[in-house]
Request: fold
Amino acid sequence: MKIRVPHTLVLLFILMVFALVLTWIIPSGEFETEINEQGIEVVVPGSFSEYEEKERLSALSLFTVVPRALADAQGIIFFVLIIGGALAVVRESGAIDALLGKMVTNFGHRPFLLLFAAMFAFAAASATLGMAEEYIPFAIILISVCVALKLDSVTAIGTMVIGYGIGYGIALMNPFTLLIAQDIAGLQPTSGMGYRAIVAVPLLAVGFHHVWKYTRSVQRDPKNSLVYGVETSSAAEIKEFPELSRRHSFVLMATGLVLVGMVVGIYYYDWYLVELGAIFVALAAVAGLLSGIGVNRTATVFGNGAAELTMTALLIGFARSIALLLEDGEVLHTVVNALAAPLESAGAELAAVGMLFIQSILNFFIPSGSGQAFVTMPLMAPIGDLVGVSRQIAVLAFQFGDGLMNMIVPTNPVLMGILGLAGISYDRWFRFIYPVILKLLAVCSLALVVAVWIGYS
Reply:
């Protein structure tokens, strides 16, 4: 009998039920807290104590917690919707298609440079803007480019998915994962960027080597392709790219200025969700004006782009519900204490690596990066306090686990959507991706150990 993986929202609801049951069967308790030198409230190691009596949560809490969680996460949710609308307007302008066409023209006779530039671009956009769902429409475009170069769809999708997975893993200033996780951990937004940028180099090298090794194998003998004989007709169609016009250049320049503005605003003016959301609203208006699509069309596209991320917004709310249930049942610190026990005896280095593998496993159940941040960082940040791992390293472990597993877990709707468009079955994709996942996990584990050694914070 074929087993069907439940919808992500169903998986989150199952986890909510599990969280509620946990509040009934495990004791409540808490750690003492104190303010550290950086002004962050942290738990005091060894101070956990259980409550003598506890109030049992009602089964109705399973439903009343959802609107509460949506309200609690409203800042992030509306920020996500605004970004979805703004990026939809940028896509509608044709600037991204034109930029991709320019890359094909300049590097089409040098596939090595083309594929590396594409992977770097996907990684950079994910590490900064947090793009992922936005790549789905480009799957067929990139496949068409690769087919024109006598490559296969696995090369195209491997370049895209490994690029965005590594981008999410390093997350220089990803608003959907990094900013949320650092906010929960009480860290300055985008802090620690230097070390993450350094780690990006070996990760991209390992990822690209895997794709290029496969590509060379297919070039030598097309029968080595994992999709040999099963390419879809749509993948063989060559898409015409628009010329990179002056309007497109202006839109791309405006998008670049927004990225620079994010960095400047965060570092020098303490911007966060309100201000960052505002500049993306401005980007949508400016992109619509510069591209000449008209105010009405801009408004329609903005609304449709935001609507496309409605499910992401709901996932954030449902994920936040899990943490709220554990908080209401006053068992969050009990769970932290239980998870910290084996990590404490392992030492800081192994504890950091243990966090990575815990996050990697949880990504199967919560593939939404922002949702996973809300569920796990309230646990991992205080665990780090207990085992001698800085909160910055705890966030880094979360980023690595989320980013890498995005490339392989079948519960990731973005991955499955891309594979569906490409006509690549999951079993064939798994054969391609699992070796590089193991290599990347090894590099990330080493990076976490080094982070502990150098006192990364």
User: Anything to note?
Assistant: The first strand starts at residue 29 and ends at 30. DSSP finds 19 helices and four strands in the chain. Residues 426-454 form the longest helix (29 residues).
